[in-house]
Design brief:
The model has no long low-confidence stretch (mean pLDDT 90). Helix 2 crosses helix 14. Helices cover 49% and strands 16% of the residues.
Length: 307
C-alpha cells in the first residue's frame, strides 16, 4: 500500500510542484486534484487524443475567459461544448462590455433599478446587453438567406467568431484555429432569444442535427478521446454521449460542486458513464469536487508546467 505523504510547503514553490505534492498525498481532495492534473497532462502530451472542454455555469463571467482562449490558441483544446450563456458573455466582452464585482450593500431590486443583472457576486450592465443585441442583429443581417437556414450551430458560431476583433475572445480564437464550439443549449441564452426575435421578421433556422453529423464524423475518425468538464448538466452529457460512437471517453476529468444523491448528470460520478458506454472500461478518469474557477486554472497551469 502507498503511504500518504504529507504536504511540504516550501518558499517559492511552483504551482506544478504544489499540485505534484497533492498527487503524492494521494487521498481526499488533494489526491483528486493531483490525479486530475496528471490526466490532463496526458491529454496534452499525446497527439492521438482529441480533447474536449465542456463548460457549464458562469465560467466566462467567473474569470476563465483568457485561460480558455489561450488553451484554444495554443492548440491544447480540439473542441468546446458550452452553454449558450458562456458564448453570450464572451461576446459581451468582445463588444466592449464587461463583468464587474457586485457593489456591497446593494439589494437585487436596487441592482435592477440601476440597470444591472446579477450572477452570484458578479454583475453585468443592461446597456452592454443592448449593445450585444445590436451587434447580433448586424451579424444576422450580414448572412445570406441561404446561410440563415442551412448553417449548423457550430458553423454559425464560427462565422460569428470571424467577425470579432478581440483576440482574447474564445469564440474568435476557436474560429481562427478551427476549433468547433458545440452548444446544444444555444437557444437557452440571450443569443438564442435574439435569434428568435429576428426570426419573427426574417428567415432563420439553424440545423442542430447537422451539428451531430459533424461531431459524429470527428468521433469516428479520432483514435482517442479526452475531456475536461467544468460543471455538469447538458454540456457534460452532450460531450460524453457523443463518444458512445466509439465506446466512450479514454480520459476524463470532471470538476463539479454537484452531489450524486439526486441522480443528476452534474453530480454523477464518471464511473457511472462506463455502464452507458460513455466512458471506456479501461479509461483513466477523476472527479474533483470544488469550484472550477479555482481548480481548473491550477490543473491547467500544473499540467503545462510539467511539459
Amino acid at each position: 500500500m502507498d503511504r500518504v505523504k504529507h504536504t511540504d510547503l516550501i518558499p517559492d514553490m511552483t504551482v506544478s510542484k504544489f499540485v505534484d505534492s497533492m498527487h503524492s498525498v494521494g487521498v481526499l481532495g488533494a489526491g483528486r486534484l493531483g490525479r486530475a492534473s496528471a490526466i490532463f497532462k496526458r491529454m496534452l502530451e499525446d497527439s492521438d487524443y482529441f480533447t474536449f472542454l465542456a463548460m457549464s455555469g458562469p465560467m466566462v463571467p467567473g474569470g476563465l475567459r483568457k485561460v480558455v482562449s489561450d488553451l484554444v490558441k495554443h492548440g491544447h483544446i480540439d473542441a468546446i461544448v458550452t452553454s449558450g450563456a458562456n458564448i453570450v458573455h464572451d461576446l459581451i466582452e468582445s463588444y466592449g462590455g464587461g463583468h464587474y464585482r457586485v457593489p456591497s450593500g446593494f439589494s437585487d431590486p436596487e441592482l435592477r433599478q440601476k440597470g444591472m443583472g446579477r450572477i452570484a457576486d458578479i454583475f453585468v450592465y443592461e446597456k452592454d446587453f443592448e449593445t450585444f443585441e445590436k451587434k447580433i442583429y448586424e451579424f444576422l443581417d450580414s448572412l445570406s438567406e441561404d446561410e440563415r437556414v442551412s448553417l449548423s450551430p457550430c458553423e454559425f458560431i464560427a462565422a460569428l467568431g470571424h467577425t470579432l476583433k478581440d483576440d482574447i475572445s474564445i469564440v474568435r480564437q476557436a474560429a481562427l484555429n478551427e476549433v468547433p464550439i458545440f452548444s446544444p443549449g444555444l437557444m437557452d441564452s440571450m443569443l438564442g432569444f435574439h435569434m428568435y426575435t429576428y426570426s419573427t421578421t426574417q428567415k432563420l433556422s439553424l440545423d442542430f442535427v447537422k451539428d451531430l453529423r459533424i461531431l459524429g464524423q470527428i468521433i469516428t475518425e479520432t483514435k482517442k478521446t479526452g475531456a475536461i468538464m467544468l460543471g455538469g448538466g447538458l454540456t457534460k452529457h452532450f460531450t460524453m454521449g457523443s463518444t458512445i460512437l466509439r465506446g466512450g471517453l479514454d480520459l476524463a476529468v470532471q470538476i463539479t460542486l454537484d452531489r450524486p444523491e439526486g441522480g443528476s448528470v452534474g453530480g454523477a460520478p464518471l464511473k457511472e458513464g462506463v455502464s452507458w458506454q460513455k466512458v471506456q472500461t479501461d479509461a483513466n478518469f477523476e472527479t474533483v469536487i470544488g469550484d472550477a474557477t479555482v481548480l481548473f486554472p491550477l490543473i491547467v497551469l500544473a499540467a503545462l508546467n510539467r511539459q
